[in-house]
Write a structure and sequence with these properties.
This protein is an all-alpha fold. It has ten helices and no strands. The N and C termini lie far apart (57 Å).
Length: 218
C-alpha cells in the first residue's frame, strides 16, 4: 500500500483535495456560500488581475457540478499519466497546461473585450473546475501512456467529453478555447518529456577511469 501511495502521490493528492472540496460544497456550505466560493475561485479577468496564482490553483479544485464524473475522468487520465512520467513530471504537465489554458482563453477574451466585441460582464464570468487538467491528462495518457487498456480508457474518456469541452469553440468561448489549448499543451509537453527521456537513455554512461596497477617490485 505504501509503495502504491508513493508511486501515485500526485493523482491521489489531486483526487483527495478535489473530493474534499466537493464534500464541503455539498454538505457544509449553504447555497450563497457555494456561489461565493465559485466567484472567488473563478479564473476570470477580474480575479486574475488581483490574485493570479491563488486563483489558478484554487480553480482546479472547485467545480459547479458533475463532480462525480470529473473524479472518474481524473482517475482515468492522471493515473496512467503518472505511471508513464512519474509524479513530478506529471505535475509539470498538468500544471503548465492548466496555466496555458487559462492565460490563452482569458487573453483572447481580454482582446475581444478591448475591441468592443464582448460586454464588461466577461470580467466576472464564473470559470472553475479541473477540466483543463483533465484535458491535458487524457490527451497525454492516450498518446504516451503504457498499456493498451489504459490508453483506450483515456481515449474513450476524451471522446465522450470532447463534444462538451469544445462546444462554442468557433465563437471563441472562454472554456472551449481553454480546453483546446490544454489539450494541445498536454500533447506537446508530453512529447517533449518523452523526447528528453529517450535522450537520457540514449546517452552512454562515461567510462570509468582505469585504476593504476601496483608498481613493479612493490
Amino acid at each position: 500500500m505504501g509503495s502504491f501511495v508513493k508511486r501515485y502521490t500526485m493523482p491521489l493528492t489531486f483526487l483527495g483535495l478535489f473530493a474534499a472540496v466537493w464534500m464541503v460544497q455539498a454538505l457544509v456550505l449553504p447555497p450563497d456560500a457555494r456561489h461565493a466560493l465559485v466567484a472567488w475561485a473563478s479564473t476570470n479577468l477580474s480575479n486574475l488581475a488581483v490574485n493570479p496564482v491563488g486563483t489558478m490553483v484554487a480553480s482546479a479544485f472547485v467545480a459547479e457540478g458533475a463532480q462525480g464524473v470529473l473524479l472518474v475522468v481524473a482517475a482515468i487520465g492522471l493515473f496512467p499519466l503518472t505511471r508513464r512520467f512519474g509524479n513530478l513530471r506529471a505535475v509539470v504537465l498538468v500544471a503548465a497546461s492548466h496555466v496555458l489554458g487559462t492565460l490563452v482563453s482569458q487573453g483572447i477574451a481580454l482582446v475581444r473585450l478591448e475591441a468592443g466585441l464582448l460586454s464588461d460582464s466577461i470580467r466576472t464570468v464564473p470559470d472553475v473546475g479541473p477540466s483543463y487538467v483533465l484535458c491535458a491528462a487524457l490527451v497525454a495518457a492516450f498518446l504516451y501512456g503504457r498499456g493498451r487498456v489504459r490508453r483506450l480508457l483515456a481515449l474513450a474518456g476524451w471522446c465522450a467529453l470532447v463534444p462538451v469541452l469544445l462546444d462554442g469553440l468557433l465563437a471563441l468561448k472562454v472554456a472551449a478555447v481553454g480546453h483546446l489549448t490544454a489539450m494541445l499543451a498536454g500533447a506537446l509537453i508530453g512529447g517533449l518529456l518523452l523526447l528528453l527521456e529517450r535522450r537520457r537513455v540514449a546517452v552512454p554512461a562515461p567510462p570509468e577511469m582505469a585504476r593504476p596497477g601496483p608498481l613493479a617490485g612493490a
